[in-house]
Automatic annotation (TrEMBL):
The lineage of its organism: Eukaryota, Fungi, Dikarya, Ascomycota, Pezizomycotina. Its EC number is 2.7.1.172. It catalyses: N(6)-D-ribulosyl-L-lysyl-[protein] + ATP = N(6)-(3-O-phospho-D-ribulosyl)-L-lysyl-[protein] + ADP + H(+). Coiled coil: none annotated. This is protein-ribulosamine 3-kinase. It is an enzyme of class 2 (transferase). InterPro entries: Fructo-/Ketosamine-3-kinase, Kinase-like_dom_sf. It comes from Uncinocarpus reesii (strain UAMH 1704). One of its GO terms (molecular function) is protein-ribulosamine 3-kinase activity.
Length: 353
């Protein structure tokens, strides 16, 4: 399938606010045209982080005492912290906290991530931080939702290619859709964008078409009308998707709905500093064609786009028939991620097909 590229005018960079104040988003790190050569910076630790009563009540072991809570890492859409506690038996335990103050939309984001981690952990324990609880703040002027999870110290990003792809393939192979269909039991969010996941479809073609059309609508709302782009979008939805995805489930072929992380890129993957094992986080899971997961790796902006990751994954989970259309499907799946980046990351130039 030939690639047609229509360059859109570059968007202007924006200033966002994270745990450590107002910062200029590093566009090359999140939505650039090539993979950064520098190492991914370690998560920053900041000053004290005020804990709402609801968070303290959600600590999983009664009688736990909070020693400290400090700002930790970065979230483009919320705040994150490391909580150090002392258990009733004297042992020390750490927790990770994420909060989002976007009203009812924050609830969708937090609950979706909690359910995503819960589903992945049930299949591959240790591959994600264990999610303990989620809820709503009891105080504060803003409507704020939180998720409390196991704390994992972030090391090398992305992780070792062999260890990482082995665990990812294990998740895809072992997972089993509760309905035997594609979808999920709840809405999950790519960044702060709600996905079409809260439905069940026998046809992967049908679900992916809904998802891509949904992302195209977000792009139109954020970046405005662009007639040439609209034409290519319509052709993709009506012609390309049926042509490439229908053969996966016709003429005697079938594909298994696999549980996917949903947004695997360099900084949603890491090596655990304590165990040396790979783990992933910031998930927006659902049951999909397993090849969808690595559509995000096609983008040159990711270190995961290197052949060493793609080839090692394919060794552990073979591609689907028709095999000779794998690259075309990979390009098609990458559109979903690139459009998401075009909507979410100010200053990137990814409105292309």
């Amino acid at each position: 399938m030939a690639t047609v590229v229509i360059e859109a005018p570059r968007l202007h960079s924006n200033v966002l606010k994270d745990n450590f104040g107002h910062v200029t988003l590093d566009v090359s790190r999140h939505g650039g045209d090539e993979a950064p050569v520098s190492l991914i910076p370690a998560p920053l630790r900041g000053g004290n982080f005020a804990l709402d009563e609801a968070v303290i009540d959600a600590l999983p072991i009664p009688g736990t005492k909070v020693i400290s809570a400090r700002k930790y890492g970065m979230s483009l859409w919320g705040k994150t912290a490391q909580i150090c506690t002392k258990l009733p038996d004297g042992r020390l335990e750490e927790y990770f906290l994420k909060t989002v103050s976007l009203g009812s939309h924050g609830r969708v984001m937090i609950e979706g991530e909690f359910e995503s981690l819960k589903a992945i952990h049930s299949v591959t324990p240790g591959f994600v931080p264990f999610p303990h609880a989620w809820g709503k703040y009891k105080s504060g002027a803003e409507e704020t939702y939180f998720m409390l999870a196991e704390f994992r110290e972030v090391g090398e990003q992305p992780p070792n290619h062999i260890k990482f792809t082995t665990r990812l393939a294990e998740l895809h192979k072992k997972s089993k859709s509760p309905t035997g269909k594609f979808g999920f039991h709840i809405t999950t969010c790519h960044g702060k964008l709600p996905q079409i996941t809260d439905c069940w479809e026998d046809s992967w073609e049908a679900l992916y078409k809904k998802q891509l059309a949904h992302m195209i609508n977000f792009d139109r709302e954020k970046n405005g009308e662009w007639p040439e782009f609209e034409l290519l979008c319509n052709l993709t939805l009506e012609r390309v998707i049926p042509r490439l995805l229908r053969p996966l489930q016709t003429n005697g072929r079938s594909i298994k709905p696999c549980l996917v992380h949903g947004d695997l890129w360099d900084e949603n993957t890491a090596t655990d500093m304590d165990t040396g094992r790979p783990f992933v986080f910031d998930s927006c899971a659902f049951y999909a064609h397993h090849e969808y997961e690595i559509g995000n790796w096609r983008a040159a902006r990711h270190r995961l786009s290197g052949d060493i990751y793609v080839k090692n994954y394919r060794r552990r989970f073979p591609i689907s028939e028709p095999e000779d259309e794998w690259d075309d499907r990979n390009l098609l799946y990458s559109l979903r991620y690139d459009l998401g980046a075009a909507v979410l990351i100010p200053g990137c130039n990814l409105r292309r097909m």
